[in-house]
Amino acid sequence: MGYADLPLDQLRRYQSEVTRPDDFDEFWQRTLKESRAAAAETRLEPVDNRLTTVDTWDVTFSGFGGQPVKGWLHLPANRGEAPLPGIVEYIGYTGGRGLPHERLGWALAGYAHFVMDTRGQGGDTDDAGGSGSPSVPGYLTQGWRSPEDHFYRRLITDAALAVDAVRGLDAVDSSRVLTHGISQGGGLAISGGVLGGAQAVLADVPFLCDFPRAAWISTRAPYDEIVHFLLRRRERADRLFQTLAYVDAVNFARQAGVPALFSVALMDPTCPPSTVYGAYNAWSGEKSIREYPYNQHEGGQGYQQREQYDWLRGFLN
């Protein structure tokens, strides 16, 4: 597969035309205030992960509307008494938190690592405010008539409140909590990190960015859900994109004030590079990006994780 998006020099200058709703801040401040008011105490139960170098807890915290959301907390077994920097990780589209012995890289590198489950998708958390039990996609048009009802209002709120929950753990240094994710997780790292007040954001090949352009040029799911919806409902385009503007990572990036490390794959047909640059170029804090010219949506994988270890070593020191 070759390049199907803008040339690299144009990507680096690309500016998203996503419109920020006038009540964007009020909408999200109200949403978080209501959900925080309904929050219950975070619960932790130790689990046997069959490992000797990492300890794991099954975590339940309060997400959107006070609804319970699951996650795994991984800590190095030899961590000592000092609180650790925290990494809140979000999962890709249709996925869930998985099994407790998966996703161990951050804990092995010395971090407190929280893997948030994804409501309504492939994990253990119901979408109590929407479709109920976890199900197959799509989610981009679920609740399209209003930002109040949209699926990603609930999931982004979960992502922000996961930062709250991790910041409140005894094992975590509350002044050093970061967000991370790939694809959908990368989009949530942006929105949840900004709303939750994370100290830095790691966003890899992020989804949920620049919806209007993504719908025009992406040839793959999940963005093609928008196309399939509108090809039969032609009169609903304006309303749908007005709703999506409330959950578009570009609009969160515009109000970010913390450092971020992005990655982009220049042959990515799932999250086209211009949509990633739409969020990256809108990022209002210190930022850098790693480009992978010959990769598709797999992005940098282990190479990018190595970049993140180095970047965080400099950031945290």
Key descriptive features of the protein:
317 residues; alpha/beta; Rossmann fold; 11 helices; AB_hydrolase_fold
Q: Considering DSSP H and I runs of 4 or more, what fraction of the residues is helical?
A: 25-40%
The low-pLDDT segments are none
Q: What assembly state would you assign to the polypeptide chains in this entry?
A: single chain
SSE succession: HHEEEEHEHEHEHHHHEHEH
- Give the strand tally: 9
- The CATH class is identified as Alpha Beta
By DSSP (H or I, 4+ residues per run), the number of helices equals: 11
Average of per-residue pLDDT values = 95
| Main β-sheet, spatial strand arrangement | 1-2-3-5-4-6-7-8-9
CATH architecture title:
3-Layer(aba) Sandwich
Q: CATH superfamily assignment?
A: Alpha/Beta hydrolase fold, catalytic domain
* Cα Rg: 18 Å
Percent of residues in beta strands: 15-25%
**What is the end-to-end distance?**
40 Å
GO molecular function: carboxylic ester hydrolase activity
Organism: Kineosporia babensis
GO biological process, one term: polysaccharide metabolic process
Binding site for substrate: 93
